[in-house]
Design a protein that fits this description.
mainly alpha, two-stranded antiparallel sheet
């Protein structure tokens, strides 16, 4: 069984050719080719939490810092983390930095 991308897990219809792109457009995660292969996903389909402007929970989400809490409780994040395991799971895309506190 192949690993599913976010649009397959949540069935949002915003992947290229999806049923909702006419109304909502293609999701930035589905077209983020610079993330292709991360966590064994297509484009950012298995690292969508790092992509600003994804449309989850019925509204456009902000950047990683703004959406990290909600994303880390999302089924896509949990499933990807579980499937990749602690040795292979990638939390951030290349060059991205996560700050835990403001300075």
């Amino acid at each position: 069984m192949s690993k599913q991308n976010c649009w397959e897990i949540i069935k949002c219809g915003r992947e290229p050719g999806g049923g909702k792109i006419k109304d909502l457009g293609v999701c930035p995660a589905a077209s983020a080719s610079q993330c292709n292969g991360i966590n064994n996903g297509k484009n950012a389909g298995r690292i969508c939490w790092t992509i600003p402007g994804t449309f989850c929970g019925g509204k456009v989400q902000g950047d990683f810092a703004q959406k990290s809490i909600s994303c880390m409780s999302c089924e896509v994040f949990k499933q990807t983390k579980s499937e990749e395991g602690p040795e292979n799971f990638v939390l951030l895309k290349p060059g991205q930095v996560y700050h835990t506190s403001a300075k």
